[in-house]
Amino acid sequence: MSRGHRLFYPALPVVAEHAPHRAVYVGDAGGRCEILTWDRLAGTARQVTDRAAGTIRAALDPTGSTIWWFDDDLGGVGTWRTCDFDQPDRSVAALPSVPPARHAGIAMATDGTTAIGLSDDGGMTLFLRTGDGRVSERTHVTGYAYLVDLDPAGRLAVIGADAATDAAVTVVTTDGVRVAGIAGCADGRVWALGFAPGSGPARLLLVIEDEGGYLPATWTEEEGLVRHDWCRFDTEVTAGWFPDGRRLLVRQDRHARSLLHEVDLAGRTRAVVDTPTGSILDAAVWPDGDVAYVWTDSVTPPQLRSVRGVQLPEHPGGQPDVGGPDPVATPVEHRREEIRVPGPGGPIPALVALPADRQGPRPAVFLVHGGPFQHARDAYDPLVEILVSTGCAVVRVNYRGSSGYGATWRNDFSAGVGLTQLADLAAVRAHLVAAGVVEDRRTALWGTSWGGYLTLLALGRQPELWRLGIAISPVADYVAAFEAATPAVRALDVLLFGGTPDEVPQRYARSSPITYVDQVRAPVLLAVSTGDVRCPPAPVEHYARLLAERRIPHQVVRRRAGHEDFDAQSHLALMQTVLLFMQRHFDGVRDEGTPVALAMARPAG
What we know:
Blueprint: E1 14-16, E2 19-28, E3 33-39, E4 44-47, E5 58-60, E6 66-72, E7 77-84, E8 87-93, E9 101-108, E10 114-120, E11 123-129, E12 135-142, E13 146-150, E14 156-160, E15 169-173, E16 178-182, E17 190-195, E18 204-210, E19 213-220, E20 224-227, E21 237-241, E22 247-254, E23 257-264, E24 269-273, E25 279-285, E26 291-297, E27 300-306, E28 334-341, E29 348-355, E30 362-368, H1 382-389, E31 393-397, H2 407-410, H3 419-434, E32 438-448, H4 450-461, E33 468-472, H5 478-484, H6 487-497, H7 505-510, E34 524-529, H8 537-549, E35 554-559, H9 568-588, H10 595-601
Parallel strand pairs: 30-31, 30-32, 32-33, 33-34, 34-35
Antiparallel strand pairs: 1-2, 2-3, 3-4, 5-6, 6-7, 7-8, 7-9, 9-10, 10-11, 11-12, 13-14, 14-15, 15-16, 17-18, 18-19, 19-20, 21-22, 22-23, 23-24, 25-26, 26-27, 28-29, 29-31
Helix pairs in contact: 9-10
């Protein structure tokens, strides 16, 4: 990675299969995610898109001549456009007769034939565009589904759905004829990952969850499903093919960090690829055989690395590629610890960051990760740096439901959705208070998306534990959010709760923050986004009105964004707003010597 460029969006560049010197990637263009081309021979980059909301989805045909990018609104509804690699400023509609919809996958065959998945409330429709530009609809799948891949010959497509259902993986011809189905179940999920490169029979790679672990599997029309039981992993994995179609690159999330493995299916061998300790956010083998990955650790922002030492080019125009000034000019030195705390479901992992210049119990902010099937990583998070600089301890708990610790931990919602996770948060808090690490009366919660949901649920279910809540794009009313959500979000909710709100209403009510709004005592900051289709803003606005009726101090921040905001300035503005809210309600507005007040007084760098 060059000195002046950061990977603003942690995903690898897409490299053309038959022209490895050409690539496209998501880069930081003036503090906003946009699509850029990359000529690897010349070492130059060129900006392709320039949209107010930013752009994060792009593809490149196998010859490297045509760029695809998705032109969507804040809610994710849009259309694909194409442009020439050498003339990226001239784009045209790729599917001119197809109405706007949500992205549900794109894949290309060797000859440039492109399969496109587009979804709406009725399900997913698969379209095919041939090399001469003809577009036709091939099949429709009701409910939640997405296109995984197209085989190199352009004859078979694989469609994924809820990995725990009978429709987990479906293989169809590009004429829409069903060829095979591979079923998953609640304790044996199945994910399709992609077809092997090359000219032989189509060979599909999958990952199977089995007996608490994970293993690769392959499928062909001739042999059906073949499990590679000799190659088991104890925690979650994803994988991709080497160009030889024989070996796999497996990325494993394990205990807040990552490992890369090279797996030879024919030779039945497995070896760890040498990478630095930390987290790998994306990894792939490029057509020239180089193993590339996006790496980070707790003190290093995400960066592109590879076995051969690849570097991104300087930003077009030679300007430094930064995301805006940090609210705190000089980071405060701090210590980091990884702990395991006894809990109701077993030892609870947590990452703790402590300011080095303070002794004794400290105020603490629990950063609650989203998901649920995600985890707090050994990865750079500027929010941790900022909060530690205020004098706070920062605690990130990998509660039950988190990935990276095996299927049993990941699938444990035994006390109820959300309630299981609150028990783990409370156990870690109690341990740190008893150990004299954090102050009993000064612990706050801060979460985004599902983490924001847990924040609101905790404020109502455990009002005696938490003095402040910051909920960014949360779920405040699970039933109302379900009714307004996309099919993908509804499928996740049905998996978590074991049914819809009509089928199991008591489960939704028991796990919904709005059920406990009368018990909230702590000040709450709520941030909503106008185009959020995963955590719709209307139920959150209603929750805020209920807080107002009960005279609970609160603030609502409204942003023009989707569920994810890819504008650095918007993030900075939100951060400053939250810090001011903390200054008023967490430290005390009159105490100008408090950590938050001191941090706010520092000049921005």
